[in-house]
Amino acid sequence: MSAPSFGGASRDGYGKGLLRLADDPRVVVLDADLGKSTKSCHFRTQNPTRTISIGVAEQNMMLVAAGMASSGKIPFASTFAIFTERAFEQIRNGIARPELTVHICGSHGGIHTGTDGSSAQSIEDIAIYRTLPGMTVLHPCDDLSAEELTVQLVNHSGPSYMRTARNKTPRIYNEVNVSNLAIGKGSVIREGTDVCILACGVMVSESLSAADELAESGISVSVVDMHTLKPLDCALVDRLASECGCIVTAEDHSVIGGLGGAVAEHLSVGQAVPLEMVGVRDRFGESGSPSELMSEFGLTSTDIQNAARRAMERK
Q1: Count of beta carbons in the 10 Å neighbourhood of residue 101
Q2: Which range marks the domain in which residue 87 is found?
Q3: Could you tell me if 154 and 212 lie in one domain?
Q4: pLDDT tens for residues 271-302?
Q5: Which CATH number do you get for residue 37?
């Protein structure tokens, strides 16, 4: 595989996706004083009458979004991932329980955020939103996929949570093949037969690097961008479990309740194949550069390679 190019961060793709939806008068955008950071500010610049800045009041933002959804609008509400958790009760009772179509975006999720430290590094957001009945959970891997999935949400019924990243990552998709993405369907980036790596977010590029290194040792690796964590593409997981005989999950999130947890839940009632999880263990984050933290928390290409070898040994 040729080296991927660098695009923007997935949060940039979210902002561009909102702009592509501007012609739909039902679309409204809400932010909680972080429009510049989540990139919803671009929509505000071009569509100020359909943008609402709530201020530092995330709980209120979610209920305002719920009210707008109940009035026929399609609200996109964004803030930092960690601050969406402040509004969990409002999301649960005001959005998810009445099955309203509100699309929530949590930016700056995960260890990859870096120097902001443990208080700002949400490593549990995906697990939290996976527990809500009817909630679709997305974690795109680059700016183009974030843009495409954001655009697709306008026709998606029911609430959703999308996690985006702060920092630039290698671009996995291009302007042509990104249109093949579909909410609820994993995207097979690379086909192999010895081990399958299911990854999301910033860990997709790390997984591709790991696959390249493993290939030099004669190990054939499948790599999947599992951008939708709920509903999980169980049919794809079953196919790859059968073809490869073992699975590795890779995520910048706690292995408790995240992608690893979701895959483990499915495998426990289906095909019993070895599963190794690469992700944050039972601990909080720290302050440091993204590369330092990825190494400290075992989220590097080398860690994925080691997990792949362990999974193969357990076949």
Answers
A1: 21
A2: 10-163
A3: no
A4: 889 999 999 999 999 999 999 999 999 999 99
A5: 3.40.50.970
